[in-house]
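Private note to self, pasted from the team thread so I don't lose it. C-alpha cells:
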C-alpha cells in the first residue's frame, strides 16, 4: 500500500514537538542547555561575591541566581514554545522548503521507497531505527533526530491508516528478526 500525502508546516511542527517530548537526544540537549546556563550564571555570581565585599554584590548574586533559575525553567518547561518560535522563523526563511510538499511512501518486504519532488530514496528496513506514533503521525526514525513523517490524514479512513501502520511495523519487525538471526548465525 502506498501512502501519498503533502508534508505541511504543521507536520514539521508536529515532528519537532514530538521530538522535544519523546526523543532522548533532543530532551538531553534541551536539559544540558538549561543546566549549563544555570551553572554559568551561578558561578558568575559566586565570582562577584568573592571579588567584592558589599551588599550590592549580594543583591547582584541574588538577581543572577533568580535570572538563572528563571531561564532554566523557561528552557526546560517552555522549550517547545521556544523551539516552535525558532521553527516558525526557520520555515519563513525557507530552511525546510525541500521537506514540504507532495511525498509518496511505499513499504515493501525489503525496503521503504520514498519519493519527494526533489529526491527518490530507498531505506532498507535495517536502516530504520524506530517507528513511533502519536495521534496524528507516524515517525520512521532513520537517525536519533531525523525521521520520515507520515500524517494519518493521508488515508481516507482510520482503518486504512491502521492497515498501513501494521504493514510498516510488520516489515520492520521481520527485518529486525532476520538481522538478529544473521548475527546469531555468525557467532
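Design output:
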Amino acid at each position: 500500500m502506498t501512502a501519498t500525502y503533502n508534508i505541511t508546516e504543521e507536520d514539521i511542527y508536529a515532528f519537532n514537538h514530538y521530538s522535544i517530548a519523546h526523543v532522548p537526544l533532543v530532551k538531553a540537549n534541551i536539559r544540558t542547555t538549561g543546566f549549563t546556563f544555570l551553572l554559568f550564571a551561578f558561578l558568575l555570581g559566586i565570582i562577584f561575591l568573592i571579588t567584592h565585599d558589599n551588599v550590592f554584590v549580594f543583591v547582584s548574586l541574588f538577581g543572577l541566581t533568580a535570572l538563572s533559575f528563571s531561564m532554566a525553567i523557561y528552557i526546560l518547561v517552555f522549550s517547545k514554545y521556544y523551539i516552535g518560535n525558532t521553527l516558525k522563523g526557520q520555515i519563513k526563511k525557507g530552511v525546510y522548503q525541500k521537506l514540504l510538499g507532495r511525498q509518496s511512501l511505499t513499504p515493501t518486504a525489503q525496503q521503504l521507497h520514498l519519493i519527494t519532488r526533489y529526491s527518490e530514496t530507498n531505506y532498507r528496513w535495517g536502516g530504520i531505527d524506530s517507528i513511533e506514533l502519536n495521534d496524528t503521525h507516524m515517525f520512521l526514525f532513520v537517525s536519533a533526530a531525523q525521521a520520515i513523517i507520515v500524517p494519518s490524514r493521508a488515508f481516507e479512513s482510520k482503518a486504512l491508516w491502521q492497515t498501513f501502520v501494521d504493514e510498516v511495523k510488520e516489515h520492520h519487525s521481520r527485518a529486525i528478526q532476520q538481522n538478529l538471526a544473521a548475527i546469531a548465525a555468525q557467532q
